[in-house]
What we know:
Helix content: 10-25%
Number of domains: 1
Radius of gyration: 20 Å
CATH class: Mainly Beta
Structural class: alpha+beta
CATH topology: Immunoglobulin-like
CATH architecture: Sandwich
Strand order of the largest sheet: 2-9-8-4-5
Shape: globular
Number of strands: 9
Number of helices: 1
Strand content: over 45%
Amino acid sequence: MLFRFSAAALAATLLLAAPAAMAGAGDYVFEPVSPEMKKGDDVTLAVRLTNRQTGKPVADAVIFKTRVDMTPDGMAEMESAVAPLPSREPGVYAFKTDLPMAGRYQVTLSAKVQGEPETVTGKVIVKATK
């Protein structure tokens, strides 16, 4: 009888824990801190990484790949160099880049989030104005 209770308790625990185990890279989203900024050199572009399930910012992610280009306006070859900047706020990742002309830019990011085995990737669109 004790064995049956223990097996049932274990099964119930596993069922309750299943949603947490099903978490994945899709549970995170990158969003622009400011979706619009002035065009120019050495522009600071910042994105926020948020956990969709909790709504909380994700601090201490390791951003290991970034790209800024004009793909949304059909000019993927218009790529700008990207340099990381120190973060001033948990979950906000800032970069220095050039936005040489007015238009829409796509920021593509890849990150490792602590405790998440999958790579978190995202694409954010920002607009550079005159």
